Write a sequence for this structure.
């Protein structure tokens, strides 16, 4: 068995896809088990090549009851806590970044400024496992009962500093609706009030608010069949990359060089006014606050034009594969 620690959130999983695919190719006959939270299961199904999910909500004791895996892979971080979490299951081999504090001197050195996708591809390459950093596509789910061809406005983010002001999201949403876009506002259940406020200010109908009404698999389906995505530095933006859905992503304080979409895909555009000195408290970060509505609308025009110019030739999306065989 190959036991992989990676996903704690949507963006973590999406940026780890090239590394997961590389491990699948390197160990074609082995069972590949991914340690990730239970709520991410619908998205894990869309990666393909993962045989089992081991449920864990964070770092700590894994509670592993099976035999020691042949290989454990730390795609979570540089340690030491994540290293020790995997060392507890007594793997035959551990693939990880070097970390003296964890007593692990094997592996390549950590580079703080590296793009998240490149980080894990480089680590596996150090161990002789080649990975393709462009292999970001997820399987495309059917839309089910969800609307298709919509423009998704996703105003939330885990940290308040990463949330573009709600009134600016609303101004963009109002303009796009006036241009004929069918705009929906997404988010978690905790972000429903924020989504409702954006929709109300934009003059959208109440049924445009989908926040809290979709699980992560349904959100992926919505993005996969959308016209456009507008959001901050969030997992929703990574889903847009995975499905080649035109997107405008608003970054700050972290630069797009660390978590942004591939720069060679003009139908995705990451806006960032940084670097800027950090503000105090939970206020929106200055590098994000400097982005205004006209700049965002101009980016929408550019990605829309790019998408039209390459229609039918964008990065292909994975075809359906077998579901997870087992979970524990």
């Amino acid at each position: 068995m190959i036991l992989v620690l990676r996903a704690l959130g949507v963006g973590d999983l999406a940026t780890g896809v090239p590394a997961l695919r590389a491990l699948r190719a390197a160990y074609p006959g082995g069972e590949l088990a991914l340690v990730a939270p239970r709520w991410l299961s619908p998205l894990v199904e869309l990666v393909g090549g993962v045989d089992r999910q081991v449920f864990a909500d964070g770092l700590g004791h894994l509670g592993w009851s099976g035999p020691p895996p042949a290989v454990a892979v730390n795609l979570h971080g540089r340690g030491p806590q994540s290293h020790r979490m995997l060392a507890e299951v007594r793997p035959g081999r551990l693939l990880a970044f070097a970390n003296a504090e964890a007593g692990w001197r094997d592996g390549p050195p950590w580079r703080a400024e590296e793009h998240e996708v490149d980080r894990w591809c480089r680590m596996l390459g150090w161990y002789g496992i080649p990975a393709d950093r462009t292999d970001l596509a997820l399987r495309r789910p059917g839309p089910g009962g969800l609307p298709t061809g919509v423009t998704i406005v996703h105003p939330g983010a885990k940290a308040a500093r990463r949330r573009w002001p709600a009134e600016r999201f609303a101004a963009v949403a109002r303009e796009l609706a006036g241009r004929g876009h069918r705009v929906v506002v997404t988010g978690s259940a905790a972000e429903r009030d924020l989504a409702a406020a954006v929709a109300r200010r934009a003059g959208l109908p109440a049924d445009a608010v989908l926040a809290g009404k979709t699980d992560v698999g349904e959100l992926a389906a919505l993005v996969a069949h959308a016209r456009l995505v507008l959001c901050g530095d969030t997992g929703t933006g990574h889903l847009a990359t995975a499905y080649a859905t035109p997107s405008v992503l608003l970054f700050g304080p972290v630069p797009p060089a660390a978590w942004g979409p591939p720069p060679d895909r003009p139908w995705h555009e990451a806006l960032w006014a940084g670097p800027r000195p950090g503000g105090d408290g939970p206020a929106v970060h200055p590098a994000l606050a400097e982005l205004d509505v006209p700049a965002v609308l101009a980016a929408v025009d550019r990605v829309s034009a790019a998408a039209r110019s390459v229609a039918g030739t964008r990065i292909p999306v994975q075809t359906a594969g077998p579901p997870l065989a087992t979970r524990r």
Notes: The two ends are 14 Å apart (CA to CA).
